[in-house]
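Inverse folding, one chain.
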């Protein structure tokens, strides 16, 4: 029961784009400078150094067993399904 409550409470969480009106005040204030968390900036050349680190940390969190590897594969497939929706935010 508790798991369902936690799961449903995260249903509407997302990474949102700031309105253009606010971004125009100081555009660089809304751009990542070290690491990107959402899907919008992960391909920026100045952030590539930490993309490898993010994958390493994910592997560390998930673990290195065969079962964890299968779960990671399922996670990536699930993320690929919702990726277009993330870019439309």
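Residues assigned per position:
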């Amino acid at each position: 029961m508790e798991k369902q409550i936690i799961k449903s409470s995260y249903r509407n969480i997302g990474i949102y784009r700031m309105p253009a009106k606010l971004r125009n005040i100081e555009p660089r204030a809304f751009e990542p400078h070290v690491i990107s968390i959402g899907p919008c900036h992960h391909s920026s050349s100045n952030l590539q150094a930490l993309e490898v680190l993010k994958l390493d940390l994910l592997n560390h969190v998930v673990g290195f067993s065969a079962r964890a590897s299968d779960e990671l594969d399922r996670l990536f497939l699930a993320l690929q399904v919702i990726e277009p929706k993330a870019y439309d935010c």
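The chain is about 55% helix and 0% strand. Confidence is low (pLDDT under 50) at residues 1-6.
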